[in-house]
């Protein structure tokens, strides 16, 4: 059967078409929503028989390709805010470094695994539910309600971010914010991304939409730009520390994902922002439920290899 | 413990005595010797390796039964045990298993050879497993079974009680034929294939041969790069990913644009 290929780092033989298909499907979502897809790809690879550590590390490698392709596609569409992306990236690198140290402490305490899974369930649950409800309300509100006369009172959050120092205008996003805000939020997302072992796009996108108030189509391109550099760092660190990057696996996935990302970017232009958000919210909630069931349902075996998720 | 599961750590003396007994019981070793041939003699893991069927042929003295064992190197396995905390299942402690081979495939010419207190098969293997770490004495039997189930789920442990075929070979001897499947998960190393002649439930002779499994070609190159030149490997992985992403993006631009 020539459709099977031996993956040396993974130490298993897998169907090429299956892996290519997984890459294509996740790449499509990556281009569509501007998420790296790590939160979907890693569980799917584990289900396909790839060891979890190899799945996570190789996934980072393929996200580099999908993000390059996606960033390039969105750059040509004028959807990348490089200024905002750089601030988020600096924060993300600082947060990622802090997150790695936090994981070391948790492992020494003996229950990092539980913290990682609970973080996944809570983050996915909160973000998915909020996006879903908000998008649904927005879609149902076909006719805008008549607003009361006179200027509306800004929210506490708006007043807070306006009061922060070092206000900068981000022309591409059309917002004026304190430079501290993307730095702090980038750090927060970086910490979570390190704990959860993903690029962080599915956290970054809602952060950009709801906290940085960037337009959805700029959010997608800018998120991919930030994810690209985060995953370059993760790929290198995994290669030299854990030897868990399977280049052959990553190559198959990235071929599928780069093709999928292009289709995703095309489809994203045809969908409204609310449609994109409700689709992403649904996927996030499905993954959250799957993880929660995995935590509650009694496992088939009471023993597993050390190093697995 | 008889002739089964040869090579268990800590049992060298016992094994030596057992072997001596076997030789004494056998009487004329020359007359009852076992022959063994393994095809292929070396298993190569190349790019399209997806496991491999290995054929074992041999001869036995007439009137004997046979047991075939394929045994991998012995290593300590570091595992995590799962437990329930509140509503949630999670890893709750490390369990170290010693005395377990990385691969154990066993076949016999009759089902009763692997049953009961037989020196071959999983019951014999389980007696040599030592568990340490966060496992209580009363839980050890349960977790030994769990360990077996884990390995069986990966096809690294398998038993086929009637997998060996015996037929007359002339000259008062029997021909033994068996086939076993080496799973794709098997690691490159030197494995041992042993054929034991059994008379009235006792081992009377045993012949073993080495079965090397080695990585060749592209997989070997990747492993060498990943472990011996990891920084270069990481950079190559990143550069290939960026180039592929860029090229695909460029190709799609030319193929219809946005």
User: How are the strands ordered across the major sheet of chain A?
Assistant: 1-2
What integer is the average pLDDT of chain A? 80
| Beta-strand content estimate of chain B | 35-45%
Q: Write the H/E string of chain A, N to C.
A: EEHHHHHHEEHHHHHE
Oligomerization state: heterodimer
Structural class of chain B: alpha+beta
Strand content of chain A: 5-15%
Please state the average pLDDT score of chain B. Answer: 84
Order of helices and strands of chain B: HEEEEEEEHEHEEEEEHH
End-to-end CA span of chain A: 31 Å
Q: What is the straight-line distance between the termini of chain B?
A: 73 Å
Quick tags:
heterodimer, A: 309 residues, mainly alpha, two-stranded antiparallel ribbon, two-stranded antiparallel sheet, 71% helix, 6% strand, B: 258 residues, alpha+beta, four-stranded antiparallel sheet, 5 helices, disordered C terminus
Describe the overall structure.
The complex is a heterodimer of chains A (309) and B (258). In chain A, helix 3 (52-76) runs parallel beside helix 10 (247-270). By secondary structure, chain A is mainly alpha-helical. Chain A starts with a strand and ends with a strand. Chain A has a two-stranded antiparallel ribbon. In chain A, strands 3-4 form a two-stranded antiparallel sheet. Chain A is globular. Helix content of chain A is 71%, strand content 6%. Chain B has 258 residues and is of the alpha+beta class. Chain B contains five helices and 13 strands. A six-stranded mixed sheet of chain B has the order 2-13-12-4-7-9. In chain B, strands 1-3-11-10 form a four-stranded antiparallel sheet, with no helix packed on it. In chain B, strand 10 (165-170) and strand 11 form a beta hairpin. In chain B, helix 4 (217-228) crosses helix 5 (230-254). The longest helix of chain B is centred in the C-terminal third of the chain and has 25 residues, at 230-254. Chain B is flat, with a radius of gyration of 24 Å. Residues 6-31 and 254-258 of chain B have low confidence and may be disordered. Classes of the chains: A mainly alpha (309), B alpha+beta (258). At the A-B interface, strand 1, helix 3, helix 5, helix 9 and helix 10 of A face strand 5, strand 6, helix 3, helix 4 and helix 5 of B. Strand 5 of chain A pairs antiparallel with strand 5 of chain B, so a sheet runs across the interface.
């Amino acid at each position: 059967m020539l459709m099977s290929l031996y993956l040396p780092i993974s130490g298993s033989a897998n169907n090429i078409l299956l892996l290519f298909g997984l890459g294509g499907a996740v790449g499509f979502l990556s281009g569509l929503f501007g998420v790296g897809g790590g939160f979907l790809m890693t569980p799917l690879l584990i289900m396909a028989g790839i060891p979890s550590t190899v799945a996570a590390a190789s996934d980072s490698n393929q996200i580099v390709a999908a993000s390059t392709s996606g960033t390039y596609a969105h750059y040509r569409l004028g959807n990348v805010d490089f200024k905002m992306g750089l601030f988020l990236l600096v924060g993300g690198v600082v947060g990622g470094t802090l997150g790695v140290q936090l994981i070391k402490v948790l492992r020494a305490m003996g229950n990092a695994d539980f913290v990682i899974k609970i973080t996944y369930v809570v983050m996915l649950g909160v973000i998915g539910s909020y996006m879903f409800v908000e998008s649904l309300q927005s879609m149902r509100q076909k006719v805008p309600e008549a607003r009361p006369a006179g200027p509306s009172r800004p929210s506490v959050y708006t007043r807070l971010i306006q009061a922060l120092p070092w206000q900068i205008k981000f022309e591409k996003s059309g917002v004026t914010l304190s430079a501290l805000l993307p730095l702090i939020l980038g750090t927060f997302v970086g910490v979570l991304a390190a704990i959860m072992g993903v690029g962080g796009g599915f956290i970054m996108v809602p952060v950009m939409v709801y906290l940085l108030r960037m337009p959805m189509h700029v959010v997608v391109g800018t998120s991919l730009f930030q994810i690209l550099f985060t995953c370059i760092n993760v790929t290198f660190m995994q290669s030299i520390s854990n030897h868990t990057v399977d280049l052959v696996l990553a190559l198959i996935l990235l071929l599928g994902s780069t093709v999928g990302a292009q289709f995703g970017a095309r489809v994203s232009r045809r969908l409204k922002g609310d449609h994109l958000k409700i689709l992403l919210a649904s996927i996030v909630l499905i993954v959250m439920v799957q993880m929660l069931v995995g935590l509650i349902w009694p496992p088939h075996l009471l023993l597993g290899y050390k190093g697995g998720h | 413990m008889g002739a089964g599961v040869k090579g268990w750590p800590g049992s060298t003396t016992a094994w030596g005595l057992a072997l001596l007994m076997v030789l004494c019981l056998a009487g004329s070793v020359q007359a009852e010797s076992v022959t063994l041939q393994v095809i292929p003699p070396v298993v190569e893991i190349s790019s399209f390796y997806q496991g491999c069927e290995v054929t074992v042929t041999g001869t036995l003295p007439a009137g004997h039964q046979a047991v075939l064992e394929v045994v991998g190197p012995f290593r300590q396995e570091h595992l995590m045990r799962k437990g329930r905390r509140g509503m949630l299942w999670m890893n709750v402690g490390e369990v170290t298993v010693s005395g377990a081979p990385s691969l154990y495939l066993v076949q016999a010419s009759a089902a009763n050879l692997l049953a009961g207190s037989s020196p071959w098969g999983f019951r014999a293997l389980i007696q040599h497993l030592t568990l340490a770490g966060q496992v209580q004495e009363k839980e050890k039997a349960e977790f030994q079974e769990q360990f077996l189930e884990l390995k069986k789920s990966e096809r690294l442990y398998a038993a086929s009680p009637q997998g060996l075929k015996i037929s007359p070979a002339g000259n008062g001897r029997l021909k033994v034929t068996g086939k076993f499947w080496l799973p794709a998960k098997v690691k490159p190393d030197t494995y041992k294939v042993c054929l034991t002649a059994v008379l009235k439930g006792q081992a009377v002779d045993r012949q073993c041969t080495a079965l090397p499994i080695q990585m060749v070609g592209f997989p070997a190159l990747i492993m060498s790069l990943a472990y011996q030149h990891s920084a270069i490997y990481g950079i190559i992985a990143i550069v290939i990913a960026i180039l592929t992403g860029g090229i695909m993006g460029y190709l799609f631009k030319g193929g219809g644009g946005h």
